[in-house]
Amino acid sequence: MTQCPECEAKVERHDKVLGEVFPCPDCGTELEVFGTTPFAVQPAPKEAEDWGE
Ligand SMILES: [Zn+2]
Predict the structure, then answer these.
(1) Deepest in the core among 3, 10, 16, 31, taking most CB within 10 A?
(2) 3 C-alpha to center of ligand 1: Å?
């Protein structure tokens, strides 16, 4: 388990894999898995990805 770099909410690994991007369950910030042993996340780079609607 690690913490969201934005809001410090606990983020659990579950079955996430390296490079996976997922939203923080608490603040919604997009997080990217950059380490699995130990589990670590960083804010996902803002790309020109059309995910909003
Ligand atoms: Zn958060």
Answers:
(1) 31
(2) 8
Per residue in 1-53, pLDDT tens? 899 999 999 999 999 999 999 999 999 999 999 999 999 999 998 766 676 66
Q: How far is the CA of 7 from the centre of ligand 1 (A)?
A: 4
Segments of the chain assigned E as strands: 2-3, 10-11, 21-23, 30-36, 39-43
Q: What does the alpha-carbon distance between residue 12 and residue 17 come to, in Å, rounded to a whole number? A: 12
Q: Indicate the pTM of the whole model.
A: 0.80
* Cα–ligand 1 centroid distance for 15 (angstroms): 19
